[in-house]
Amino acid sequence: MNSTRKYLLVIAGLFGALGLSAQSPSPVTRLIVRGDDMGFTQSANEATLLAITKGIQTTVEIMPNTPWFAQAVTMLKAHPKVDVGIHLTLTSEWEQLKWRPLTQAPSLVDENGYFYPFIWPNKDYPNQHLQDKPWKLDEIEKEFTAQIEAVRKHLPWASHLSAHMGCTGMHEDIKQLALRLAKKYGLEVSLDQVVPVTYRGSKKTSQEKTRSFMAMLQTLEPGKTYLFVDHPAFDTPEMKAIRHIGYENVAEDRQGVADTWMHPDVIRLINEAGIRLISYRDLKTR
């Protein structure tokens, strides 16, 4: 018997004596919990920070064009271990809350200088979507670059890009531009093997949202990596003033997200199921 085989038999015997298996460990279920739109309200900033420090959120997407960006930066600077994504933005969807490009971009804005409300046609807001406007790719490139650099200036550990309201999917040229910028700034993350998941069941109230989220958790399979995306905020007067047609219950809805992500039953289920919470940054180092 050669020495290698002897060694393997000895190791196997040790595992047996200890009541252990020499087989590889069971595959782990991994889950990214991503909270979008940090910076757009103070309420969103506060809920996001709590959902990260006290709850299950693992990644935050920040919008540098928005009114509460400076506060969001201050909060995140105090928590440099938080995974940050740069939420590329070309729309300003709320009726009573607006933001503009960081650059001179006349092809991307309405007559008031704000981003259009939507990317794609919306029957409730006719002729207020960017897709059918004479947008210019060079202006989008300058704007995306400015947004990236605005975040990186303050939060240099930002790990990735994401797209507000799916703006990078508006055209193949914009998608390729975003990929080039991600490579240029070291913000590439491969999501090819990541499975998007959503609620399973009604989510009208906070309680229903929590139950639906927990039902979703129970469907996750070992060995796979999942991504769940939503928008935490608190039900405050600030949030109650924000709406657009078709989404009038913003404050209540986003309070439900915050409640769910910090709910003790959700945290308990994740622990009992052995689900490993990871961030986008973890995908870069695997």
UniProtKB/TrEMBL annotation:
<keyword id="KW-0378">Hydrolase</keyword>
<dbReference type="InterPro" id="IPR011330">
    <property type="entry name" value="Glyco_hydro/deAcase_b/a-brl"/>
</dbReference>
<feature type="signal peptide">
    <location>
        <begin position="1"/>
        <end position="22"/>
    </location>
</feature>
<keyword id="KW-0460">Magnesium</keyword>
<protein>
    <recommendedName>
        <fullName>ChbG/HpnK family deacetylase</fullName>
    </recommendedName>
</protein>
<keyword id="KW-0119">Carbohydrate metabolism</keyword>
<keyword id="KW-0732">Signal</keyword>
<dbReference type="Pfam" id="PF04794">
    <property type="entry name" value="YdjC"/>
</dbReference>
<dbReference type="InterPro" id="IPR006879">
    <property type="entry name" value="YdjC-like"/>
</dbReference>
<keyword id="KW-0479">Metal-binding</keyword>
